[in-house]
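A reminder from the course coordinator: this example appears on the midterm review sheet, so study it carefully.

Given structure:
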C-alpha cells in the first residue's frame, strides 16, 4: 500500500509531517553529511536576529533526567548572513522555515521584512518565548496584549506563511493560541522549552552560567501533548507539535492530539538522522494499520471509553 505522507502546514506544503526544531539543527548544512534533507518534511533554522549574536558564556548546556537544559541565548549569524551565506548551501527542493526573534516588536518586524521575498524560504516561525525588553523581561508569549502586538506587527511585515511558536510558561495556552489566530497567524508551533533550573551541589552554583534555562527532551513530552490537545480544541489553525519527539510513536501521539506536523528537537543531538527515521516510521506505521493518508490521523484521538 502506498501512503500519502504529505501535509499542509499553514500554507507550507510538506512531503511528510516531520521537521526539525529551531536551535537543534543549525542551518541545515551541519546535518547534511548524516542524512539526506529530502527525507524530512523540512527544517527550521536557528532563530535569526538583525545583527549577529554571541549568546551566553559556558556552561550553557547541561544534561537533565530524560532531557536537557540549555541557556545558549539564541546565538546566530544574523539574518543577512543567513540569507547570503547559509541559505544558498541548502538544496533547492528542501523546505526551509526561518525562525526569527528580537527583543522588541519593531525588531521582529524588520527581520521578517528582510526575509520576505527570499525565494528559498517557505515560511517564518516567530519565536515568542523571548524576553521583551520594554516589558521588563517578560516573554512575548506570556502576555496576551504583548503577544497580540507581536503577531500583528510580524503579520503586516511579511507575506510568507507565518507560524508562531508559543511559550509553555503560561497558565492558559488556549488563550494565547486564540490571540495568534485573531491577529492572522497561519499556524502555531508548540511548545518551546519549559523554564527550568538546576544546581551543582559540589560548587553550590547553578549548573548553567545564566542560572535559568530551558528544559527540553522526553521529560516535557506529556506537557507538550496536553497543550497541543488543548489548543487543537480551542482554535482552527494547524499546529506543529514539539516536545520530546524521538520516535514515530511519539510523533503519532501528537498527530492524534491534533497536530498537523511535528518538529524533532533534542533528539538530534543524540542521533543526527532521528527526524528522517521518525518520518519513515510514520509511513511504516500507516502501512501496517491500513492508513492511506497521514493527514487523516490528525485529531484522531478517541475519547476514553469510546
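Designed residues:
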Amino acid at each position: 500500500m502506498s501512503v500519502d505522507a504529505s501535509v499542509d502546514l499553514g500554507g507550507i506544503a510538506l512531503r511528510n509531517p516531520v521537521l526539525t526544531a529551531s536551535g537543534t539543527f543549525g542551518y541545515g548544512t551541519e546535518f547534511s553529511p548524516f542524512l539526506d534533507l529530502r527525507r524530512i518534511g523540512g527544517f527550521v533554522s536557528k532563530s535569526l536576529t538583525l545583527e549577529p549574536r554571541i549568546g551566553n558564556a559556558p556552561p550553557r548546556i547541561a544534561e537533565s533526567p530524560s532531557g536537557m537544559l540549555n541557556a545558549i541565548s539564541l546565538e546566530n549569524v544574523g539574518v543577512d548572513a543567513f540569507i547570503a551565506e547559509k541559505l544558498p548551501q541548502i538544496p533547492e527542493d528542501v523546505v526551509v522555515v526561518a525562525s526569527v526573534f528580537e527583543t522588541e516588536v519593531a525588531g521582529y518586524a524588520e527581520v521578517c521584512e528582510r526575509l520576505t521575498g527570499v525565494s528559498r524560504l517557505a515560511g517564518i516561525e516567530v519565536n515568542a518565548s523571548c524576553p521583551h525588553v520594554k516589558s521588563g523581561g517578560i516573554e512575548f508569549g506570556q502576555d496576551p496584549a504583548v503577544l497580540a502586538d507581536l503577531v500583528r506587527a510580524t503579520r503586516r511585515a511579511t507575506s510568507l506563511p507565518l507560524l508562531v511558536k508559543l511559550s509553555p510558561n503560561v497558565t492558559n495556552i488556549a488563550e494565547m493560541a486564540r490571540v495568534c489566530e485573531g491577529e492572522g497567524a497561519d499556524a502555531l508551533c508548540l511548545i518551546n522549552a519549559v523554564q527550568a533550573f538546576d544546581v551543582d551541589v559540589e560548587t553550590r552554583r547553578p549548573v548553567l552560567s545564566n542560572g535559568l534555562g530551558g528544559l527540553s527532551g522526553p521529560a516535557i513530552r506529556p506537557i507538550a501533548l496536553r497543550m497541543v490537545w488543548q489548543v487543537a480544541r480551542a482554535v482552527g489553525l494547524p499546529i506543529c507539535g514539539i516536545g520530546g519527539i524521538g520516535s514515530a510513536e511519539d510523533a503519532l501521539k501528537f498527530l492524534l492530539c491534533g497536530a498537523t506536523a511535528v518538529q524533532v528537537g533534542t533528539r538530534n543531538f543524540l542521533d543526527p538522522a532521528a527526524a528522517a527515521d521518525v518520518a519513515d516510521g510514520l509511513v511504516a506505521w500507516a502501512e501496517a494499520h491500513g492508513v492511506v493518508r497521514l493527514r487523516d490521523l490528525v485529531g484522531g484521538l478517541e475519547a476514553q471509553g469510546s
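Helices lie at 79-86, 105-115, 144-157, 173-182, 221-234, 248-257, 267-270, 274-288. The CA atoms of residues 225 and 253 lie 8 Å apart.
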